[in-house]
Amino acid sequence: MKILHTADWHLGHQLHGHDRRFEHDAFLDWLSDTLKAREIDALLVAGDLFDTANPPASAWQQLYRFLARLRAEMPRLNMVLIGGNHDSPSKLDAPHELLRAFDLHLVGSISRDSEGKLETDRLLVPLQDREGNIAAWCAAVPFLRSSDLRVEQLAEGQDRLIEGVGQVYAEVLAEGRARCGEDLPLIAMGHAYLAAGQLSELSERRVLGGNQHALPAELFAGADYTALGHLHLAQSPAEGVHYSGSPLPLSLAEANYNHQVLEVTFAEGKLAGLERIPVPRAVEMIRLPQSTLDDALKAIASLELPACPQEAQPFLEVRLLLPKPEARIRERILAAIADKPVRLARITTSYQGSGEGLADGRERRRLDELSPTEVFRLCYQRQFEGEPEAGLVASFEEILEQVKESNQ
């Protein structure tokens, strides 16, 4: 059996006001062709299908067109998709019954019965081979919010969030292992931040209330392969545990990432192979080295780019280091690129302090470039002239998650 693992599509994403539909269409076309060419048996998408809890209609259309195309062209393909922290659990669960009629498994949230017992049936999906035989079981656990967990009976000294997540995975994986018996592999899916994971500069957040709530890889010890989402940089924080990474850069800080999907092969119930398949990039990102405005304008003038439709034009980031504020910076840069097939994504400006060069430069960032946690830190620093303690930041992030959940 061959499985393709991907995650963090972020359909509906905008990069500093620029629409990314062209790039997502290109990726989904490539993914469809890849699934057919490689004769994949199961597609696993590990969360963050959308960029926001309220994605535009065009993003839903992209997803549904893709799923309908695959079902028509690959009628025996197993498809399992879970929700991530960017997705709305209720919106993903709404079409569940309709999609299940077409053998499409979209899991936005976990559910419990009237006694609070976890309903594992919906989270355990049989994966069939081309002959229609069950060849593996998939534990499709979506992103777990604090409201999903039952932590009332845990001791005060325990980290309740981590223990609560551990309880969910332990129960689902135990039931999955029982269904697998000794012959079939068990594949776990999740959307989480693991303790050994490497975050990108701007795009991801440590979910579940801060770094002290990073999950241990041991939670997935009962699985033969764990397909994770959330971290945009492809990585393997533990043996058998893999982040596929996002298929396209979701911030300028990710411009140099090697975006990929993972092909996982099982033979005779055992993991037999893992191949990283590079995802072609439909739109390039150009990040000019930090320099003076005059040098940046010269660098722009020297750009030689082929003509292409606007949606395929590269994104440009201009990074400036100035001795003092200058007027009409944006106007001058826009004039310089007026005849260039390139789109201005961002201008970042740092100012030299005591004249000691780059290390002494102070970068000024727009409010819309800051995360809520960064705004909290800056406000704390201004009010109390120091860094907030880690516990206080964690409490803020937990409140932030609760607010987001209440708005979904």
UniProtKB/TrEMBL annotation:
InterPro entries found in the cross-reference section: Calcineurin-like_PHP, DNA_Repair-Maintenance_Comp, Metallo-depent_PP-like, Mre11_N, SbcD, SbcD_C
Keyword set, alphabetical order: DNA recombination, DNA replication, Endonuclease, Exonuclease, Hydrolase, Nuclease
One Gene Ontology term of the molecular function aspect: endonuclease activity
Keyword Electron transport in annotation: no
Gene3D superfamilies, alphabetized: 3.60.21.10
Pfam families per the UniProt record, alphabetical: Metallophos, SbcD_C
Domain Calcineurin-like phosphoesterase: 1-232
CDD domains: MPP_Mre11_N (cd00840)
GO aspect biological process, one term: DNA replication
All copies of domain Nuclease SbcCD subunit D C-terminal, residue ranges: 282-383
Role summary: SbcCD cleaves DNA hairpin structures. These structures can inhibit DNA replication and are intermediates in certain DNA recombination reactions. The complex acts as a 3'->5' double strand exonuclease that can open hairpins. It also has a 5' single-strand endonuclease activity.
PANTHER family documented for this protein: COMPONENT OF ATP-DEPENDENT DSDNA EXONUCLEASE (PTHR30337), NUCLEASE SBCCD SUBUNIT D (PTHR30337:SF0)
NCBIfam families assigned: sbcd
Record's subunit section: Heterodimer of SbcC and SbcD.
Family listed: Belongs to the SbcD family.
Protein name: Nuclease SbcCD subunit D
Organism: Aeromonas veronii
